[in-house]
Amino acid sequence: MEALQLFLTRLGEDAGFRAAFSADPETVLAQSGLQEQHAMAVQRQDGAALQTLSGDDHVPFLIVNHGNRL
């Protein structure tokens, strides 16, 4: 769970990491060390799954999509 939280935090705070993810999400996720179910939830942008998988149903997640396909 901690790896997922760190990944999402980095995705939100690190513009270079976000750009790399946007350009090639499969590679970034493969290199992330995330468990498969976590990586799949990130790739699907499944907010409900991310909230559950993070281990705290009270932590809100906001997925920002500027109209570009991730």
Automatic annotation (TrEMBL):
InterPro entries: LigA_sf (IPR036622). This is Extradiol ring-cleavage dioxygenase LigAB LigA subunit domain-containing protein. It comes from Shewanella dokdonensis.
